[in-house]
Design a protein that fits this description.
Number of strands: 0
Strand content: under 5%
Largest sheet: none
Distance between the termini: 55 Å
Helix content: over 70%
Number of domains: 1
Mean pLDDT: 88
Length: 122
């Protein structure tokens, strides 16, 4: 017996989220090498955190697929919300890593992101 599951996987959003996760891993590795602070234990911990992010997205997909089957209605797009949160979180981490890797670019990053912050406060 097949379950009546109708679900469209948001491939583009998943790909963008995965891209941000991979970019953060690479930037963190470059930062650790640049600052001579590379530690395999810290990298393993970071990789487990990234795995947790990916599993959170998978859990969101399972919820979106299975909730309608058991009669649960959620008006919030679960996977989209999780992915947007991860993208924003990874953006902050990537900016921090870029600032540590290249102090020259730090001033530009501060200027660009403070402009967005000021725009949001208007």
């Amino acid at each position: 017996m097949a379950l009546p599951i109708q679900y469209t996987v948001p491939y583009n959003l998943l790909l963008v989220t995965l891209l941000f996760i991979v970019m953060d891993i690479v930037m963190g590795l470059v930062k650790a090498l640049e600052t001579k602070s590379f530690k395999s234990l810290k990298m393993r911990e970071g990789l487990f955190h990234k795995l947790g992010e990916i599993l959170c997205v998978v859990f969101g997909m399972v919820c979106e697929m299975s909730f309608p089957v058991v009669g649960i209605t959620v008006k919030l797009p679960i996977v989209t919300t999780i992915c947007i949160y991860i993208i924003i979180m990874e953006t902050g981490s990537i900016v921090e890593n870029l600032a540590a890797i290249s102090p020259n670019i730090n001033a530009l990053l501060v200027k660009v992101f403070s402009a967005y912050k000021n725009e949001g406060n208007s």
